[in-house]
Amino acid sequence: MFIGHFAPALVAAARPKAAGLGTLFVAAQLVDIGFAALLFPELEAMRIVPGITAMNPMDLYHMPYTHSLLGALLWAAGFGALVGVATKRRAAAIGAALVVLSHWFVDLLVHIPDLTLYGAPPKLGLGLWNHPMIAMPLEILFIGAALAYYAKRTSAPTGNRRLWILAGVLALLQAVDWFGPKQPTFSLAIPATMLFAYALLAGTAAWAGANRRLAAPTP
Asked: What's the domain range around 120?
């Protein structure tokens, strides 16, 4: 799953005293940001195996520091602590940490067994990447419902134009991920592209959420 990971970020951003939407977009993909960064020094590893799943040719065979449940918990605790120090808001810290942690559980739905509990077998994953007619609508449902929730719970003086632009960027990058050309072999262009996409989305989300405030409750 790609843009579906941002659904918890949008839900969390609509809560009182939440961290900013850009910060929560970073939280949503923090373990993948870490994974991409750790591919450069080969502390984690992947390879391209065409056909390993119906939707994704990545064989994610060594991810103990980012895609184990223990690793995700540690990333969540660290990021939550940083957000707490930066914002001085406990609710913001807890929300950001939960968004980081949500990544592992969303991945559990789509990955073939390559996730772990603590970096060693058993390997876990329900494998929806092998069932695109389930995985693709599910991703659209996740992000669509979250965008609608965020739009309803927040408002901006200029309306929803920025939010529509964010939705368009999300849709474009997801379309590239689903239908764009795949790398035939692993190269460092893959993690570099990942990091660029995450930076683009976080920056767009920060801009989209900058002038939004919680909507006044309906009497």
From this structure: 3-214
pLDDT in tens, 2-50: 999 999 999 999 999 999 999 999 999 999 999 999 999 999 999 999 9
Length of the chain, in residues: 219
Domain count, the chain: 1
Residue 46 phi, psi (nearest 5): -150, 165
Q: Which of 205, 11, 162 is nearest to 96 (CA)?
A: 11
Q: Which two tokens stand for residue 205?
A: 């989300």
User: What does the alpha-carbon distance between residue 196 and residue 48 come to, in Å, rounded to a whole number?
Assistant: 20
Give, in degrees to the nearest 5, the angle at Cα 49 between 182 and 57. 45
Look at residue 219 and tell me if it is in a domain: no
Q: Is residue 145 part of a domain?
A: yes
Residue 37, token pair as written in the block: 């960064």
| Collapsed DSSP state (helix, strand, coil) of residue 142 | helix
Q: Half-sphere exposure (CA, 13 Å, Cβ side) for 28? A: 27
Say what the pTM is: 0.96
Residue 94 lies in a domain: yes
